Amino acid sequence: KAGVTQTPRYLIKTRGQQVTLSCSPISGHRSVSWYQQTPGQGLQFLFEYFSETQRNKGNFPGRFSGRQFSNSRSEMNVSTLELGDSALYLCASSLGAGTAYEQYFGPGTRLTVT
Amino acid sequence: AQTVTQSQPEMSVQEAETVTLSCTYDTSENNYYLFWYKQPPSRQMILVIRQEAYKQQNATENRFSVNFQKAAKSFSLKISDSQLGDTAMYFCAFIHLTGNQFYFGTGTSLTVIP
């Protein structure tokens, strides 16, 4: 079974631009979560989608948004990029929502904002 | 607020030796799950071990075991017979039994020295 895939793997953008990242979960998984990883901050939760609905959202500004499609693929969008948005963005998928289900992580998208 | 603290940013261990990574957490809840995740240099995060707070017995997965001290809110990871492939960033994580959001520590970078 194929793992979680994320595209693109690397991205360079300039301040003020917007960006869209994509995550394809493991086949059959219906939950997708997004995290921002920066040195010294660890992983910070952005949001989680389950069956096309956002279940939970972390403490990030409204510039960060996401959505999930009927095939469970998810996209994350960041508008008006700032230098501080430079990070590794990880998505994780699981069979269902909730603690009973193990999260499987993708390789991440490395976003650099200049 | 829920927080996870990993006080050791970097650690090293000789191959075949044993190393312990520390993690403390803060919560007012009684039912939750604790995890250790491993992120090798290739960036794919994988689950190492999981502990349910209601279980008194410490979880074990082959060379990996935890020391769960619920009263002290401590959750350390012991790696026995360290191997070169154990070189990675290790993250401690926490989620409530009925929660929607994982809380991660800032990570410990472990290097196994041949």
Q: Which spans of chain B of ≥5 residues are poorly predicted at pLDDT below 50?
A: none
- State the helical fraction of chain B: under 10%
Tally of alpha and pi helices of chain A: 0
Main sheet record of chain B:
6 strands, mixed
Mean pLDDT score of chain B: 92
Q: Return the structural class of chain A.
A: mainly beta
Mean pLDDT of chain A: 92
Radius of gyration of chain A: 13 Å
Largest interface: A-B, 25 and 27 residues
Work out the strand percent of chain B: over 45%
Distance between the termini of chain B: 41 Å
Total helical elements of chain B = 0
- Count the strands of chain A? 11
Describe the global form of chain A. Answer: globular
Order of helices and strands of chain B: EEEEEEEEEEEE
Largest sheet of chain A: 7 strands, mixed
Count the E strands of chain B: 12
Q: What is the oligomeric state here?
A: heterodimer
Indicate the low-confidence ranges of chain A by residue numbers.
none
For the terminal residues of chain A, how far apart are their CA atoms?
A: 37 Å
What does this structure look like?
The complex is a heterodimer of chains A (114) and B (114). With 114 residues, chain A is mainly β. Chain A is built from no helices and eleven strands. Chain A has strands at residues 5-7, 10-13, 19-24, 31-38, 42-50, 53-57, 64-68, 74-78, 87-94, 104-105, 109-113. In chain A, strands 2, 4, 5, 6, 9, 10 and 11 form a seven-stranded mixed β-sheet that branches. A four-stranded antiparallel β-sheet of chain A has the order 1-3-8-7, with no helix packed on it. The radius of gyration of chain A is 13 Å and the shape is globular. Chain B has 114 residues and is an all-beta fold. Chain B is 0% helix and 53% strand. Chain B has no helices and twelve strands. Chain B has strands at residues 3-5, 10-14, 19-21, 24-26, 32-39, 46-52, 60-61, 64-69, 74-79, 88-96, 103-104, 108-113. In chain B, the strands form three sheets. In chain B, strands 2, 5, 6, 10, 11 and 12 form a six-stranded mixed β-sheet that branches. In chain B, a hairpin with a 6-residue loop joins strand 10 (88-96) and strand 11. Chain B is globular and about 40 Å long. The relative contact order of chain B is 0.35. The model of chain B has no long low-confidence stretch (mean pLDDT 92). Chains A and B meet through strand 5 and strand 9 of A and strand 5, strand 6, strand 10 and strand 11 of B.
